[in-house]
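Annex B, item 7. Sequence and structure tokens for protein A, then protein B.
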Amino acid sequence: MKKSEQFQREKTGNLGYVNKNCWLVKALNYSPYKRCQYCEFKFHNCLFLHYQIISLILIIFFLTLSFLIEGKISKLGIIFVFALIVIYGYFFNKSTEKIINANFAQKKAKEALEELNEKLEEQVEQRTKELRKAYDELKVLSKAKSEFISMASHQLRTPLTSIKGYVSMLLDGDYGELGKDKKQALSNVFQSSERLIKLVGELLDISRIELGKIELNKNKTQIELLIRSCCEELNQQAKEKKLALVFQEPKTFLPKVKIDELKIRQVILNIIDNAIRYTKQGKIEVGIEQKKDSILIAIKDTGDGLTEKETGQIFEGFIRGSAGADFFADGAGLGLYVSKKYIDIHNGKIWVVSPGKGKGATFFVELPIGIKD
């Protein structure tokens, strides 16, 4: 037997289908009725067999009843019984065909759904493999990028530090007195070298974080003392812009938090420094309070503010608000990115809220009190 014929005989609904569950169809080797092409029942479950049995019972019942009533079987009774059987058979036949066809359609739908699921699973599995491969390649590239940045930053730091040192000595008059113009030019060089050293430092921090080489030196710290020190360090910078830098220090000491003091200090300094830079007039307020299981630091300014889009992007690398582009040409937009990374590895949170452009912004830093090592 050819494969196509074999398929026709095994596939439900095909013209040559043979139901192997039914001994009658199997014995005949073909489907005696059209409905049998859609049936998978065993012989004793066959609806048509049920119809024949019920018909036979009805014939016997009505004939017996007619005999008992009249003492004999009348011709009218026989005609009536057979007419009733024919009518019953017609409607039963139609109903069974509908039932079998409905069951067949349901089965076909189920098979189609299963086939679709199999195809979808194969496609998902294939896409997952492709994504996993792309992710692995991206990890390799990301690691290579971080290692390159780390190496380049190390190579840049030493000469930049030397340049800054020699320029500082020139400005201090260690190599003789300089004219006003020369001092101004060297002062610009000194400031540029400081910015470059800061940028190199941020790049090194990022590469260490991404390579998993960052080390934390955690100690129990009185956080309000650290914030007061940061405010004192930047107070002169605020005065030069005629801004008020106010630290609303709590009246009593808050619980100590276990942190890497240098890294959290860098976070606070960076946020306050940005607030001073992007505020034309008004003040910067620094507050701190204890929540249930954490310490919440809030740094509020009256500066240019942020759009809704900027608040969602501000902690990404190489992103600055429109105020940064308008007021300052320097800066790579890495400070807040590094700050978020430092807060993340402390199991803390950092976010910003701004009513809109020209309405200032408030940066929040939340650190757990019971932070784990």
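Protein B:
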Amino acid sequence: MTFFRTQATKLPLAALAMTLCAATAAPRLAAQTPSLLDPAAGYDSSSSSLLPSSSLLPPAPPPVSQPAPAPTPAPAQQQQQAPAAPPEMDLRLHNAIVAVVEDKAITMDDIRREITPLIPQIMRESTSEQDYLNKLQALQDDIVQSHIDRALIVKEFYKEKDGEPKKSIPASYIDNQLEEIIITQYDNDRSKFLAYLRAKGQTIREFRKEIEEDMINGYMRQQQRKSQSVVSPVKVETFYRENKDKFFQDDQVHLRLIQFTRNSQTDGELIAKANDVVNRMKNGEKFEDLAKELSQDTRRSKGGDWGWQKRSDLKAELSEPLFKLKKGEVTDPILMPEGAFLMYVEDRKYAGIQPIDEVRDQIERIILQQMARGSQEQWLERLRRNGYVKYFN
């Protein structure tokens, strides 16, 4: 097949920007906030905790998601700034064709539906009006490319190959997914779902087609990832050797804590309670069990378990005595305005480069992700070369 490219879609972007934010001024600079991990940033007094509020929960890992494919660069002569479209163009451009892939048209309205929910985030992250427009252009390019790739993947799925049965998605799979969507997204209320379709100007048949294409897209991408499933020990060792600095770890303690709140008690009364815990530990009782019985902090039900903590996660009054201890040791009672505290070292990690055996699984996952991304991009590039794609301005 022939692969066509015409002018990039700068003019529709301007119209899209006008449609989405005609009354919006240039975005303000993102607010600068102090690090929540800084002990000087303040504490949550309502939780009766001596830990910075950000240390109560570990930071969420970044979501693992399929990276958007890089858009194909436009010809050099098309990189000039396009003039803003007048507001009267908005309605005409809602259904303007941005690109055609095989026999499917991608319209400005397709792009607008995906961009609109992301506008507030783009505005928060933009430092100027030009930065905002640049981000909007990049997002539009990614979405257009995503629609193109999706259509090409569907075509590849249905392509008949010698010696292979014709592929299809059973209607029952689509029925089940449709019911799941109605249950989870529309409170199992079919009338709400139908109202959504009417507002979107879409038929049930078209919606079912979207579900089918979603299933095909997910299946075909998963098949590509499965083809990359083995990492040799040599690759792991090479990655470790070339990226040792990525495996540096700070001093850390797996902390368990018992807190006795003051509640008008004297220092002597609080120390007596804490010393009683220490004596019971010497007699063989576990710190975890004593925390479940006696602690008055928010982690009592978990045996006072605060997970892995760095020095910077704690107030100096706590980190100094805690990081002098070895695994299995407990601090002396620590008096503070909030009450008395005992801290127990469940485990220790010392500062330095982690040994390869401790990070081997992590490295294998990283390499597998890199291999899968590379393999999938090569696969998509092949589909793009063999497909019919035409852009419109």
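Comment on protein B: Residues 1-29+69-163+233-245+354-393 form one domain.
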